[in-house]
Amino acid sequence: xxxxxxxxxxxxxxxxxxxxxxxxxxxxxxxxxxxxxxxxxxxxxxxxxxxxxxxxxxxxxxxxxxxxxxxxxxxxxxxxxxxxxxxxxxxxxxxxxxxxxxxxxxxxxxxxxxxxxxxxxxxxxxxxxxxxxxxxxxxxxxxxxxxxxxxxxxxxxxxxxxxxxxxxxxxxxxxxxxxxxxxxxxxxxxxxxxxxxxxxxxxxxxxxxxxxxxxxxxxxxxxxxxxxxxxxxxxxxxxxxxxxxxxxxxxxxxxxxxxxxxxxxxxxxxxxxxxxxxxxxxxxxxxxxxxxxxxxxxxxxxxxxxxxxxxxxxxxxxxxxxxxxxxxxxxxxxxxxxxxxxxxxxxxxxxxxxxxxxxxxxxxxxxxxxxxxxxxxxxxxxxxxxxxxxxxxxxxxxxxxxxxxxxxxxxxxxxxxxxxxxxxxxxxxxxxxxxxxxxxxxxxxxxxxxxxxxxxxxxxxxxxxxxxxxxxxxxxxxxxxxxxxxxxxxxxxxxxxxxxxxxxxxxxxxxxxxxxxxxxxxxxxxxxxxxxxxxxxxxxxxxxxxxxxxxxxxxxxxxxxxxxxxxxxxxxxxxxxxxxxxxxxxxxxxxxxxxxxxxxxxxxxxxxxxxxxxxxxxxxxxxxxxxxxxxxxxxxxxxxxxxxxxxxxxxxxxxxxxxxxxxxxxxxxxxxxxxxxxxxxxxxxxxxxxxxxxxxxxxxxxxxxxxxxxxxxxxxxxxxxxxxxxxxxxxxxxxxxxxxxxxxxxxxxxxxxxxxxxxxxxxxxxxxxx
Length: 770
Fold this sequence. Notes:
Structural class: alpha+beta
Number of helices: 29
Shape: globular
Radius of gyration: 27 Å
Helix content: 55-70%
Strand content: 5-15%
Number of strands: 15
C-alpha cells in the first residue's frame, strides 16, 4: 500500500517527468557520426588517360566545406577521352565509402571492385547521377566479399557528353559502427520530433490559454488559435532576426521560455480545461506519428548523407532545391549574413514567403550546429503534417461516422501525394492546412458563413494570412472561395468581414513592404506564372501581363487555356503499356533501361507528382459514386454530410477553373504550380463519399492502396534496383525501417482505437462550435 501511495506522490511524478525529459535530451545529443578509416595512402593508386588529380570541372562543388579533400577526375576538353583509375589492393570492409561526382552511370562508365587475383568483379551502383556536386556514398558490401583482397576501379569510357567522372580515395567502416549510426539516427529523429513539436506548439498554447481566460474558447477555436499562435511566434521572431541576429536568438529563447512558464502555471493552478488540452494533445499525436512514419520511409534508402539531397532524390527523380530555400534564408539571418542581392543561385529572398524560415529561426538556437540540416528536415516534415490535423478537424465538423473518419484519414496517409509532399518540405501542404483551418473557422463546410461572428472571422483572416505567408500558390483557393461566397451571397456581417480583412493585412503588409522596399521586386513568381515573364527586371506585374498577353492572338489564348485543362488529366499510360507488353526496353539520354516495365512504374510515380486527376488513383472512383449519390438525392434531398462534401467539391471545381484561366504558360497546371489545398480537399471529398455511400468498396480499395499501391511507391527501390553482381549505394537502413514500422503500427492502433473500439467516441467527437 505504501509503495502504491509513493508511486502516486508528486515526488515520483516529478521523477518520471524528469526522466522522460532527460531521455529526450539524451536522444537529441545521441547522433553518432560514422567513423570511417582511410583504406589507401595518398599515392596508392594508378591512373591513365584522362584521369588526373583534381580533374573535374571547376564548377563542381562540395556540399559542405569540411568535406573538401583530394580528388581525381576524368574530365577532358572534348569530354570523350578514355581514362582509368585503379587503386592498390586492400581488404574489402563491411562498408565502403567515398565521394563521387560526374556521371558514373553513363553508358561506358563503370565503378567496381575487382578481387585479386581472381579478377571477379562487383559493380558499385548509384541511383542518381551526382553531376556537378560531390556526393558522399556508402556501399554495404555483401558478406562473401568482406575481407577479400580487392582493388577499386573506375573506368571512363563514355562516348556521349556529359560523361566525365570524379572520385576520392576510399574509406572503410565496420558493420557495428554502421548499426550504431543507424540506431543513433533513430534516437535523434524521435527526440527531435517531440522537442520540435513542443517548441512549435508552446507559444500557441500559451496564447490560446490567455484568450480562454477572457472569452471561453471551444475545442475548435482553441486548436486553431494554438496552431496560428505557433506560426505567428515564428513570423514575429523572423522580423527580430532581420533587425539583429543576436536579438533574434534572445527573443526566440524568451518566447519559448515565457510560453513554457505560462503553460506550466496554467496546469499547476488547475486552470487548464482538460477537454481543450486533450484536443491539442490528439492533434499533436497525429503530427508526431505521421512525421515518424514518413521520416522512416524517407530515409529508408540512403541516396545521400546530406538530408536536403536525400529528400530531393528519394521518391521522384531529382527535384529542385525548393525544400532548402527556407533553410538557406534562416541560416543567413541566424549568422548575420546578407540576403541581398541573392539568397542563393537564381533566387532572391523576396521570391518566397518567410513563414517556414521564421518557424525554423524560432528553433535554431536549440539545435546543434552539426545536425541542423537534419533537424530542419524533421521540423519541415512536422509542419507539413499539419494537413492531417486540418483533415481530422474538417471530418469531425462534418459529423460523419467515426469509422468513415478513420478510413478517409487512412486513404490520405497511405497516398503517394501526401507522402512525397510531406517529406519534400516545400511549405505547400503547410499553406493548405492553414487554408482549411480558415474554412473551419468560417464554418464554410456547414454552409454557415453568414453566421460567422467577428472573432471567428478574425481567426479565419489570420489563417488566410498565415497560409499566404507559407506559400503563395494557395491564392488560387482564396480567390475561388471569394467567388463562391460572393456568387452565393453568403458573406458574413460587415463587422466580421472587417475583422477578417484586418487580420489578413496585419500578417501580409509587413512582408509586402519587405518585397517592395527591402529586397525588390518581389513579384518574380507572380509575373512568371500569370504573365509568362521569367526575367528578373523592373517591370511591374501589370506591365508584364499586358506585354506578354499582347503577343498572343485570341485563338492562341484560348488554345493555351484548353491545354491547361488537358494537363489536369496528364498523359495516359497506353504508350508505355504497349511497349511493356511488346517487351521493348526504354532508353534515356545516358543509358538503356533493361526492364520494359520500369517506364510504367515511372509513369505511375510521375503522374502522382504532376497531374491532378492521376494523383488520387483509386479514389477517382469517388466521382462516379458522388454522381450516383447526387442523382439519388434528387428524390429525397441531400444529407447534411453530402451537402458539406458538395460545398467542398464546388470550391475545388471553381479553383480549378480559376487556375486554368490565370496561368499563362500552356500546360503549366501541374500540381506543384497550384494550391495543394485544392488537392487536399479533393482527397477528402472522394474518400468521404466512398466511405459514406459504399463503405465495403471503400475498405477493399483502402486495402489495395495500403498493401499494394502505396508500397509500390514508398518502397520503389526494392523493385527497380537490379539484383545480381551489383551492390547499390545506401541500401536499406535497419533503424529507419524500424521507425517506419513503429509509425505504421502506431497509426494503425490509433485508427482502430478511434474508429472501431468502444472508447473511440472519446477520441473523435464532433468539435464544439458556437
